[in-house]
Amino acid sequence: MPRSLRLVVSSAAVAAALASLQGAAGAQVTSAGEHIQYALVTAKDYIFAAPPTITAGIITFHLVNEGSDVHQLSVMEVGPGHSIKEFYDAMRVKGVPPAWTTTVGMTPTIPPNSETFLTLRLAPGRYVLSCMIPAKDGRSHVEKGMYQWLTVSPKAKPAAAPAPVTKKP
Questions:
Q1: Which residue of 25, 67, 123, 143 sits 20 to 30 Å from the alpha carbon of 81, by its own alpha carbon?
Q2: What is the DSSP letter of 69?
Q3: pLDDT-based confidence at residue 131 (cuts at 50, 70, 90)
Q4: How far apart are alpha carbons 135 and 71 in whole angstroms?
């Protein structure tokens, strides 16, 4: 199936899934005026191409595997005072995410030339996108460079309405 047709079919499936949630639980899905953001994440061997910044709220990550190896996307919140280098070093030494990260979501593992979606509500903060799969040579995809910093910025506050003008008699 051509990629553009898969995208339409996949988008329709996501829309149908969200529509099925609208009934009595509709208020829990999105609040009035909230928009779902879209972030394309392209996985190649061994790097992600993804936006470095996103606004807090509901985000649908669309993972497309353009590599020759299987890949997946893990989204982890990074604790205050820690850096992307510390994350990489911890993964290289221990092979597991450090205790100061919290996994907030992950996609399934997908083969080359396929795609998947992950929808999350992210609060402002710092996150790392990574592929947690071990490669055929025993090194993790993270060790090979498959991780990226993601900053989630606060939503812009709406401008205050101007004070009403009153005429004096």
A1: 143
A2: S
A3: very high
A4: 10
